[in-house]
What we know:
369 residues, alpha/beta, 46% helix
Amino acid sequence: MDRTLIFVFGMILGSILASCVSLAIRSNKNFSVISKIKIDNNLFLGPKIVVVGGGTGLSTLLSGLKLFTNNITAIVTVTDEGGSSGRLRMEWGMLPPGDIRNCLVALAKDDNALNKILNFRFDRGELKGHSLGNLMMLAMTELCGDFATAIEEMNQLLAIRGRVIPVTNEKVMLAGKLQNGEKVQGELDISSHGSKLIDLWLEPGDSSLHEEISSIISESDLIVLGPGSLFTSVLPNLLVPGFSEIIINSSVPIVYVANLMTQPGETEGFTLLDHVRWIEKLSGITPNFLLVNDTSIPEKIKKIYKNDKADPIIITDEQEIAFKTMHCAIIKNNFLNIIDDKSVRHHPIRLSEALINLTRKNGEIPWAE
Length: 369
């Protein structure tokens, strides 16, 4: 794509988006002015929650958390190689925007309206396969000169509840070692060989952490890892030099949100304990809390997943004993959300409520009346 086209495209898109966001906010007549002020005040005073990850799991959680607090920071991985993000990474040398885009949409005040705009995908011509949001972030990156600054501008432009930042502003790639000694490289290879991995790292190994992460962590009330793919969403963030140490040295409680299902190739055959042990092995982090779904998935849906070699992640008595020795408190609840009677996701509201409860003091939420 011509660079001039990208610049013009970005400027026009920015104006359109700003107008759409403003219109969506003004057209919300569901609440009185007084009710809206009260809600906005509670959100402003809400707990400071840092969520670390990427992919669908992260954006799902964010869509629920924004209903409880404005003080959200999503720290997002930048190792995506698939689809439109992968093409832009290869052709333009930019960091992959897909996961960032999904988080921005999830935190928007009117996520339905913004979703239609940013996730619109072209189906023909040179732009086939690209989403409108990815191209806008490409334009913003070209205008701003670097990816992190572009994302900060997007945070402001879209007036989202919270912030989205990349874990690093540098180009990194996942690499790993298999049980047979073979090296695999790139997110796509890692995701298809995860269950055979014995080690995982980033290349280059000296990437710099986003400059604000240290202060963000120190000022937070809760750190949440996941939900999301273990090797390609959660761990890539923790592998950036210095990030794990900042988390460990803070006094902030750490929560790991267990995935609902294993993932074919990546975590095939894994238990919840396997997930946590990988986090410990590569980052030195032992979560203080584990959030685990305790509601059975309908047999019809389990069969659909089973055909793809994916199974529900459950916690056994033996695992509970192991977690007790690790000083991991287990919080079980119904976090299940069934989509179109054929797939499962975390329920964004129930999951968010459980996390908010962990920020309570003496049984009360400090910022609530």
